[in-house]
Amino acid sequence: MPESISVLIVEDHQVTLDGLKMGLSSQAGLDVVGSATTSDEGLELADKLRPDIILLDLHLPGKQGPKSMIQSFCNIAGSRVIVFSGESRMAFIQTVLAVGAAGYLLKSETISKVAETIREVMGGKRFVISKELIGGETNVTRSEQDVLKMLAHGMKYQDIADRRTTSPATVRKQCELLLLKLGLNSREELIAWAVKNGYGSLEIEV
Fold first, then answer.
1. Sheet strand arrangement including 128-129
2. Neighbouring residues of 26: CB distance < 8 A, sequence distance ≥ 6
3. Are 57 and 10 in contact (CB under 8 A)?
Protein backbone atom coordinates (compact mmCIF):
# COMPACT_ATOMS: atom_id res chain seq x y z
CA MET A 1 0.00 0.00 0.00
CA PRO A 2 1.40 3.45 -0.89
CA GLU A 3 2.32 5.85 1.93
CA SER A 4 -0.26 8.30 0.58
CA ILE A 5 -3.48 7.11 -1.10
CA SER A 6 -4.70 9.46 -3.82
CA VAL A 7 -8.47 9.94 -3.98
CA LEU A 8 -10.70 11.48 -6.64
CA ILE A 9 -14.25 12.36 -5.55
CA VAL A 10 -17.04 12.45 -8.15
CA GLU A 11 -20.21 13.78 -6.53
CA ASP A 12 -22.81 16.25 -7.81
CA HIS A 13 -24.28 17.28 -4.44
CA GLN A 14 -22.13 20.20 -3.36
CA VAL A 15 -22.66 19.82 0.39
CA THR A 16 -21.76 16.12 0.26
CA LEU A 17 -18.77 16.87 -1.96
CA ASP A 18 -17.47 19.57 0.37
CA GLY A 19 -17.94 17.32 3.39
CA LEU A 20 -16.06 14.44 1.75
CA LYS A 21 -13.21 16.68 0.61
CA MET A 22 -12.77 18.22 4.03
CA GLY A 23 -13.25 15.00 5.95
CA LEU A 24 -11.02 12.75 3.85
CA SER A 25 -8.29 15.39 3.59
CA SER A 26 -8.04 15.30 7.39
CA GLN A 27 -7.47 11.53 7.43
CA ALA A 28 -3.89 10.33 7.76
CA GLY A 29 -2.48 8.87 4.56
CA LEU A 30 -5.28 10.09 2.28
CA ASP A 31 -4.74 12.76 -0.36
CA VAL A 32 -7.78 14.19 -2.18
CA VAL A 33 -6.23 15.04 -5.55
CA GLY A 34 -9.35 16.27 -7.31
CA SER A 35 -13.13 16.43 -7.51
CA ALA A 36 -15.81 16.59 -10.17
CA THR A 37 -19.57 17.07 -10.27
CA THR A 38 -20.39 15.27 -13.55
CA SER A 39 -19.42 11.85 -14.84
CA ASP A 40 -17.85 13.33 -17.98
CA GLU A 41 -15.65 15.70 -15.99
CA GLY A 42 -14.86 12.89 -13.55
CA LEU A 43 -13.73 10.51 -16.28
CA GLU A 44 -11.52 13.19 -17.80
CA LEU A 45 -9.91 13.88 -14.42
CA ALA A 46 -9.56 10.19 -13.60
CA ASP A 47 -7.80 9.51 -16.90
CA LYS A 48 -5.47 12.45 -16.27
CA LEU A 49 -4.73 11.90 -12.57
CA ARG A 50 -4.97 8.07 -12.35
CA PRO A 51 -5.89 8.19 -8.64
CA ASP A 52 -5.61 5.13 -6.43
CA ILE A 53 -9.28 5.44 -5.43
CA ILE A 54 -12.27 6.94 -7.22
CA LEU A 55 -15.12 7.67 -4.79
CA LEU A 56 -18.10 7.74 -7.11
CA ASP A 57 -21.71 8.83 -6.73
CA LEU A 58 -24.14 6.55 -8.54
CA HIS A 59 -26.43 9.09 -10.18
CA LEU A 60 -24.52 11.86 -11.91
CA PRO A 61 -25.15 14.31 -14.75
CA GLY A 62 -23.44 13.07 -17.90
CA LYS A 63 -23.77 11.16 -21.14
CA GLN A 64 -23.78 7.64 -19.67
CA GLY A 65 -26.23 5.67 -17.56
CA PRO A 66 -25.12 4.36 -14.14
CA LYS A 67 -23.95 0.91 -15.26
CA SER A 68 -21.92 2.02 -18.27
CA MET A 69 -20.57 4.97 -16.27
CA ILE A 70 -19.27 2.69 -13.52
CA GLN A 71 -17.70 0.39 -16.11
CA SER A 72 -15.92 3.37 -17.63
CA PHE A 73 -14.48 4.44 -14.29
CA CYS A 74 -13.50 0.83 -13.50
CA ASN A 75 -11.55 0.75 -16.78
CA ILE A 76 -9.22 3.54 -15.60
CA ALA A 77 -5.87 1.78 -15.25
CA GLY A 78 -4.48 1.71 -11.73
CA SER A 79 -7.65 3.03 -10.08
CA ARG A 80 -10.16 1.25 -7.85
CA VAL A 81 -13.77 2.39 -7.64
CA ILE A 82 -15.84 2.72 -4.48
CA VAL A 83 -19.45 3.70 -5.12
CA PHE A 84 -20.97 6.11 -2.57
CA SER A 85 -24.75 6.17 -2.86
CA GLY A 86 -28.10 6.23 -1.12
CA GLU A 87 -29.36 3.29 -3.22
CA SER A 88 -29.86 0.25 -0.96
CA ARG A 89 -31.44 -2.40 -3.22
CA MET A 90 -29.17 -5.45 -2.95
CA ALA A 91 -29.78 -6.70 -6.50
CA PHE A 92 -28.74 -3.30 -7.81
CA ILE A 93 -25.66 -3.27 -5.60
CA GLN A 94 -24.66 -6.70 -6.86
CA THR A 95 -24.81 -5.40 -10.43
CA VAL A 96 -22.56 -2.49 -9.48
CA LEU A 97 -19.98 -4.83 -7.95
CA ALA A 98 -20.25 -7.26 -10.85
CA VAL A 99 -19.11 -4.59 -13.35
CA GLY A 100 -15.93 -3.98 -11.38
CA ALA A 101 -16.49 -1.72 -8.37
CA ALA A 102 -14.44 -2.76 -5.35
CA GLY A 103 -16.78 -1.35 -2.73
CA TYR A 104 -20.23 0.08 -2.09
CA LEU A 105 -20.98 2.49 0.74
CA LEU A 106 -24.21 4.16 1.75
CA LYS A 107 -24.17 7.93 2.12
CA SER A 108 -25.13 7.51 5.76
CA GLU A 109 -21.59 6.26 6.52
CA THR A 110 -19.17 8.35 8.57
CA ILE A 111 -15.99 9.83 7.14
CA SER A 112 -13.94 7.43 9.27
CA LYS A 113 -15.80 4.47 7.73
CA VAL A 114 -15.21 5.81 4.21
CA ALA A 115 -11.51 6.21 5.02
CA GLU A 116 -11.37 2.70 6.51
CA THR A 117 -12.97 1.26 3.37
CA ILE A 118 -10.49 3.09 1.14
CA ARG A 119 -7.62 1.52 3.10
CA GLU A 120 -9.23 -1.93 2.96
CA VAL A 121 -9.69 -1.72 -0.81
CA MET A 122 -6.11 -0.53 -1.26
CA GLY A 123 -5.05 -3.50 0.86
CA GLY A 124 -6.62 -5.82 -1.68
CA LYS A 125 -10.05 -6.48 -0.20
CA ARG A 126 -12.91 -6.83 -2.67
CA PHE A 127 -16.64 -6.35 -2.28
CA VAL A 128 -16.51 -4.08 0.76
CA ILE A 129 -20.05 -2.88 1.50
CA SER A 130 -21.84 -1.04 4.28
CA LYS A 131 -22.72 -3.34 7.18
CA GLU A 132 -26.22 -1.90 7.11
CA LEU A 133 -26.72 -3.69 3.78
CA ILE A 134 -25.69 -7.08 5.15
CA GLY A 135 -28.74 -9.00 6.28
CA GLY A 136 -29.14 -12.54 7.49
CA GLU A 137 -31.01 -15.71 6.73
CA THR A 138 -34.35 -13.90 6.92
CA ASN A 139 -33.39 -12.08 3.72
CA VAL A 140 -32.56 -15.26 1.82
CA THR A 141 -35.17 -16.04 -0.84
CA ARG A 142 -36.65 -19.48 -1.50
CA SER A 143 -34.59 -19.74 -4.68
CA GLU A 144 -31.41 -18.88 -2.77
CA GLN A 145 -32.29 -21.44 -0.10
CA ASP A 146 -32.44 -24.10 -2.82
CA VAL A 147 -28.96 -23.07 -4.01
CA LEU A 148 -27.65 -23.25 -0.43
CA LYS A 149 -29.00 -26.79 -0.09
CA MET A 150 -27.21 -27.87 -3.26
CA LEU A 151 -23.95 -26.22 -2.22
CA ALA A 152 -24.17 -27.90 1.18
CA HIS A 153 -24.58 -31.24 -0.59
CA GLY A 154 -21.34 -30.69 -2.52
CA MET A 155 -22.82 -29.72 -5.87
CA LYS A 156 -20.74 -27.54 -8.24
CA TYR A 157 -22.01 -24.53 -10.18
CA GLN A 158 -22.53 -26.64 -13.29
CA ASP A 159 -24.46 -29.30 -11.33
CA ILE A 160 -26.69 -26.65 -9.78
CA ALA A 161 -27.22 -25.00 -13.17
CA ASP A 162 -28.23 -28.34 -14.71
CA ARG A 163 -30.66 -29.02 -11.87
CA ARG A 164 -32.20 -25.55 -12.09
CA THR A 165 -32.15 -25.40 -15.92
CA THR A 166 -30.06 -22.25 -15.98
CA SER A 167 -26.43 -21.29 -16.66
CA PRO A 168 -23.39 -21.63 -14.36
CA ALA A 169 -22.90 -17.85 -14.71
CA THR A 170 -26.38 -17.24 -13.28
CA VAL A 171 -25.68 -19.57 -10.36
CA ARG A 172 -22.35 -17.82 -9.73
CA LYS A 173 -24.07 -14.41 -9.63
CA GLN A 174 -26.67 -15.76 -7.22
CA CYS A 175 -23.88 -17.03 -4.96
CA GLU A 176 -22.13 -13.64 -5.13
CA LEU A 177 -25.35 -11.98 -3.96
CA LEU A 178 -25.56 -14.49 -1.10
CA LEU A 179 -21.99 -13.61 -0.10
CA LEU A 180 -23.03 -9.96 0.11
CA LYS A 181 -26.22 -10.68 2.03
CA LEU A 182 -24.51 -12.92 4.57
CA GLY A 183 -21.30 -10.92 4.94
CA LEU A 184 -19.07 -13.74 3.66
CA ASN A 185 -15.98 -13.56 1.45
CA SER A 186 -15.68 -16.76 -0.58
CA ARG A 187 -17.53 -19.75 -2.00
CA GLU A 188 -15.86 -21.93 0.63
CA GLU A 189 -17.21 -19.72 3.42
CA LEU A 190 -20.67 -19.85 1.82
CA ILE A 191 -20.61 -23.67 1.74
CA ALA A 192 -19.45 -23.81 5.36
CA TRP A 193 -22.21 -21.38 6.35
CA ALA A 194 -24.82 -23.50 4.54
CA VAL A 195 -23.65 -26.68 6.28
CA LYS A 196 -23.46 -24.98 9.69
CA ASN A 197 -27.00 -23.65 9.28
CA GLY A 198 -28.49 -27.01 8.45
CA TYR A 199 -28.88 -26.84 4.70
CA GLY A 200 -26.85 -30.04 4.30
CA SER A 201 -29.44 -31.94 6.31
CA LEU A 202 -32.36 -30.77 4.16
CA GLU A 203 -33.56 -32.81 1.22
CA ILE A 204 -33.12 -31.41 -2.27
CA GLU A 205 -36.34 -31.23 -4.23
CA VAL A 206 -36.24 -33.15 -7.51
1. 30-36, 5-10, 53-56, 80-85, 103-106, 128-129
2. 111
3. yes
Backbone angles phi, psi at 30, to 5 degrees: -110, 135
The CATH code of the domain at 137-201 is 1.10.10.10
Q: Where are the domains of the chain?
A: 5-133, 137-201
Choose among 148, 136, 157: nearest CA to 202.
Answer: 148
What's the pTM? 0.71
In whole angstroms, give the CA distance from residue 185 to residue 182.
9
Judged against a pLDDT cut of 80, whether residue 67 lies above it is answered with: yes
The mean pLDDT value for 65-89 works out to 92
Considering the four listed CATH numbers 3.10.20.340, 3.40.50.2300, 3.40.640.10, 3.40.50.300, the one that applies to the domain covering 5-133 is: 3.40.50.2300
Query: By three-state DSSP, how is residue 93 classified?
Result: helix
Residues sharing a CB contact under 8 Å with residue 134, sequence separation 6 or more, in sequence order: 180, 181, 182, 183
**For the chain, what is the mean pLDDT?**
89
Handedness of CA 183, 186, 187, 191 (dihedral sign): negative
